[in-house]
Write a structure and sequence with these properties.
By secondary structure, the protein is of the alpha+beta class. 51% of the residues lie in helices and 20% in strands. It is built from five helices and five strands, in the order H-H-E-E-E-E-H-E-H-H. The chain has a five-stranded antiparallel sheet, with helices on both faces.
């Protein structure tokens, strides 16, 4: 059975030490997740089934269908369907800082599943919180 190193046990109880652990591991993980984001969006990104949004304020949109020059998308927060010309949606979303998040969500889940046995739930939660704040900038 895998035992947690003492430094991590102490870090869970000490916010300053937890900050040090996050600063040591966080930048490497941030670069990996940042590489999964897609900026700027283009017509090629908009395919049915893909999910886009703004991570730091939890906005999410799902592309339902592309019909000619029109995109039909669902606002997953409001549970409403909207449609607009593709160019208008791209311009609006790029100004808002919308990115494709389906890939990022998968990476975050992978990070959580791999690091939790080693770092513990508290440290992983703090690390992911830090990471999402960095991605929101």
């Amino acid at each position: 059975m895998l035992t947690k190193p003492k430094i991590l046990v102490y870090a869970e109880k000490n916010p300053i030490l937890m900050g040090d652990v996050i600063s040591e591991t966080g930048d490497r993980i941030f670069k990996m997740v940042e590489a999964a984001t897609v900026l700027p969006l283009s017509r090629y990104n908009l395919r049915s089934g893909r999910i886009f949004g703004i991570i730091h304020n939890n906005q999410r949109f799902k592309i339902v269908e592309l019909v000619g020059g029109t995109v039909v998308y669902k606002d997953l927060n409001k549970d409403k369907i909207f449609y607009a010309p593709v160019d208008d949606v791209l311009q609006k979303w790029n100004l808002m800082g919308v990115v494709e998040i389906s890939g990022v969500d998968a990476i975050l889940e992978k990070i959580k599943s791999v690091l939790t046995p080693f770092l513990g739930g508290v440290l992983v939660a703090a690390l992911l919180s830090w990471l999402l704040k960095k991605l929101g900038k």
